[in-house]
Every structure is written in C-alpha cells, then in structure tokens.
C-alpha cells in the first residue's frame, strides 16, 4: 500500500507541500480499504514522505533526512560496547563527504570573500580559547559552506551525519571539548583554502579537522 501511494505521488508529479486526495478519494482511486490507507499513511509519515495535518488533510512531506538521523543515532548509542564502531563509521562518512566535495567547494568559493563564515570561525576560536564547545557554530559553518554548491543533497547529508555525530558523541561518554583549538583552526584553514581555490590545502585542512574526533574515538575504548 505504501508503494501505491508513493507511485500516486510520482505519477501525479506532486511536490513537497502539495495536498493529497482525501482518504475516501484514495480508497476509490487505488481500490483499497480505509484501514489500508491509514496504516500506509502512518508509515509514510514516519519517513517524512507525507505530513498529516489534522483538520486540514494530508500533504506531501518535506522528504527530509530526519528518519535517517534518528535511525543512525539509535544505532550509535545501542551498542557502545562495540568499541564505538558505529560512531567511527559516521566520522569516516563525514570526512569522506567533505573530501569528495573539495573540488566543488574550492571552485565555488575561489576568489570570493565570505565575512559571515569568517565570523563563525572567529566565534569558534573565541569559544575554544575559553574551553567552550561550539556546536552551533560548527553546524552553521558546514551548512553555510556547502550552501554555495549546486547540490542540495550533499548539504543535507553532511548536516544529517553532523547531527548524528554531535548527538551520539556525548551519549557514549566522550568529552565534547577535546581538541577544540585544533578543530577551530582547521575550520579557518578550510575556509581560507577554499577562498584561495587551493584544493590540496583544503583537503589537508579537512583531514586536520577530523583528527581530534578520531583521537577521541581511538582512546575511548
């Protein structure tokens, strides 16, 4: 039944935010019972494929990666006895994505000036000097940096894995304030390299960015 509703959305070229037919109309269109439609809608709502607005109707969802994040967070905290393997995998995916997009990021930012991103880096460095974590600034940096690319999915994936990393890390008893100065400097190096169009320097800064995380995971067990 869920596949039939997804096919309906695709066939009718519905977009996020578009109103779906009523329950009765779907039953007539698809030749199924109301209970089948309701059960399918509950499943699709959990996946953010549809959004049920009580009293208003059912709409095509925003198709976010929230279900992916929730699943990965649960996976990450479910088995910490597994030598933090799940979180290591998340960090590896994050680093791989950042390295894979190095050419595109540098091409997009080469020769530009980005005072907003520099302010974010400055805030990171100020907080790190006080021994304070800077999760908000970290997220803003990666989100704003990748917003320059003509690829929305990459930005969503990077943000999704960043959220998993940030939520799971402290739940496993890992200190969130280790290597803050290194991490803050690496963000600045990434930005300056991107603005200079220096792909190699950008990649080196990306690797440095993940060293504190890798170190924390390597000593956690």
Secondary-structure topology with pairs:
Elements: H1 2-11, H2 23-30, H3 34-46, E1 50-53, E2 57-60, H4 66-78, H5 85-100, H6 102-109, H7 115-129, H8 135-146, H9 152-171, H10 180-196, H11 199-220
Antiparallel strand pairs: 1-2
Helix pairs in contact: 4-9, 5-9, 5-11, 6-10, 6-11, 7-8, 7-10, 8-9, 10-11
Record keyword descriptors for this entry.
single chain; 221 residues; mainly alpha; Arc Repressor Mutant, subunit A; Four Helix Bundle (Hemerythrin (Met), subunit A); two-stranded antiparallel ribbon; 2 strands; 70% helix
How would you explain this protein's 3D organization?
The protein folds into two domains: 2-60, Winged helix-like DNA-binding domain superfamily/Winged helix DNA-binding domain (Arc Repressor Mutant, subunit A, Orthogonal Bundle); 66-220, Four Helix Bundle (Hemerythrin (Met), subunit A), CATH 1.20.120.530. Helix content is 70%, strand content 4%. The protein contains eleven helices and two strands, in the order αααββαααααααα. The mean pLDDT is 84.
Q: Got a strand count?
A: 2
Give the overall pLDDT as a whole number: 84
Rounded to an integer, what's the Rg over CA atoms? 21 Å
- CATH class category name of the largest domain: Mainly Alpha
* Assembly status: single chain
Q: Give the low-pLDDT segments.
A: none
Span from first to last CA? 45 Å
Could you state the CATH homologous superfamily of the largest domain? GntR ligand-binding domain-like
Number of domains: 2
Per CATH, what is the topology of the largest domain? Four Helix Bundle (Hemerythrin (Met), subunit A)
Shape: elongated
Proportion of strand residues: under 5%
CATH architectural designation of the largest domain? Up-down Bundle
Strand order of the largest sheet: 1-2
What's the helix-strand series?
HHHEEHHHHHHHH
* DSSP summary: helix tally: 11
Could you give a short account of the major beta sheet?
A: 2 strands, antiparallel
DSSP helix fraction: 55-70%
- Which class of secondary structure composition applies to the elements? mainly alpha
